[in-house]
Amino acid sequence: MPEALLSKKNQKIVKDGLWDANPITFQILGICSALAVTTQLKTAIVMSLGLTIVTSMSNVIISLMRHFIPSSIRIIVQLTVVSAVVISIDQVLRAYMFDVSKQLSVFVGLIITNCIVMGRLEAFAMSNPPWKSFLDGLANGLGYSAILVMIGIIREIFGAGTLLGFHVVPQWMYAHGYANNGMMVLAPGAFFLLGIIVWIQRAISGYAESA
Amino acid sequence: MSKMNQTTYTFVFATIICVVSAVLLSGVSEGLRAKQELNAELDVKKNILKAVQLAEPLGPKMKPEDVLKVYESRIQEIVIDENGNIVEGKKPKDIQESEKNLHPVYIYQEDGKVLAYAYPIVGQGLWSVLYGYLAIEVDGTTVRGVTFYKHGETPGLGGEIEKEWFQNNFKGKTVFSVKENKVTPIVVVKGKAKDVFQGEELNYHVDGITAATITGTGVTDMLDKNIKLYEPYFSKIRKNS
Question: Which site among A23, A26, B82, B240 is 20 to 30 Å from B17 CA-CA?
Fold first, then answer.
């Protein structure tokens, strides 16, 4: 009997990606991009969308081919598929969403080397059917997105006094000596935030690293 | 495949993957090229129009055809050589890669009256090559506007060069000191310009970006190089005006 599209098992796949095995807070993957693109919320959102699409699409493609991929070259095959998907997306953006592609120029290419994409291919798509793999990619992408958006909001508000480019810190606060926090704009600010988020998430979920 | 040797199979598989992705990517690239090139050209024209500070600025939602119409009616494209002489019958797009002595100038006119001269500026930032346009008033000394439209600097840090506040710093600055009769390329300082300089020196120093000193130095270098490159042409303009 075919399994329901959102059976208990499949729900767990989604929940794992979003919460229990969140790629950033649990697997500690994709940290580099989480620091690089979160100075502004807008780039964080676009990067999140890009990564979510790439992870789910390449998960499906690899899952479809999983019985045919010789295990000795599986990493190369995964990398080829990821690169092809990323480059195609970049080309489409350049043709139809030129302004967005200009802002993202370097980041889109960076998706290829994002550990989450390869991590999910290797850990999940290689041994699971396409629909499950799609859910897994989607959930991990969204789990990554949630953290990025949180960090992006905090960094933009405290680092630049804006949110999505609009001023949110009122002028009178600056007049009374308030200053933007320079550390938020730099990578260390993101590191501290990330640490705090991991801490909170693990305190709630009760997870502890085994010695 | 049952009888096929494992190594042979691996090679066959790898070849198929390579060929399929190569064909796919070339297809995508070829199919979208025309549209991408049009976008890039439109972006350049928009930035020239932005640098010269149009009397009626372009609307944010303007259609591509309308932008091109404005561009064609207001901008005259010419080419100059290293001595600042106009090369007759040549357009910027005719300049070949090898003709390093030829440079484009975009003249902004409104009802037949020249209002500004714009030219491209290119230079190395921290992570990437910065591209922009600098527009000079008819007096040949005052900056009318500047744009940086393509770069790969860190958003929030060096990436701030694309923001209005940074580009507005340049308006009204001078690239030539009449009093001392010398070129004064604009320098991006660390911190606020008015804390360090005063009087005439303030005319060619602008505020820097916090935590983006190297990008600022890059902007200084690119302005230095390009302003000197175009000086022969502008010295003629100053003489004639």
Answer: A23
Q: How many CB atoms lie within 10 A of CB B207?
A: 18
The complex's ipTM works out to 0.75
Q: Is-contact B142 B241, C-beta < 8 A?
A: no
Whole-number mean pLDDT of chain B? 86
pLDDT classification of A27: cutoffs 50, 70, 90: confident
Task: Find, in chain B, the residue whose alpha carbon is nearest to that of A105.
Answer: B152
Where are the domains positioned within chain A? Answer: 9-203
For residue A167, count CB atoms less than 10 angstroms from its CB and return exposed for 0-12, middle for 13-18, buried for 19 or more. exposed
pLDDT at B2: 54
CA distance A102 to A100: 5
Minimum distance, in Å, between the CA of residue B35 and any CA atom of chain A: 5
Residues of B with CB under 8 A from a CB of A: 6, 9-10, 13-14, 17-18, 21, 24-25, 28-29, 32, 35-36, 39-40, 42-43, 127-128, 150, 152, 154-157, 210-211
In which domain, by residue range, is B160 found?
Answer: 39-240
In 10 A of CB B86, how many CB atoms?
13
**Interface membership of A81 toward B (CB under 8 Å):** yes
Is residue B29 included in any domain, yes or no? no
Which of B35, B150, B161 should one mutate to test binding to chain A, selecting the residue with the greatest count of A CBs within 10 A? Answer: B35
**Domains of chain B: total:** 1
Backbone angles phi, psi at B60, to 5 degrees: -65, -25
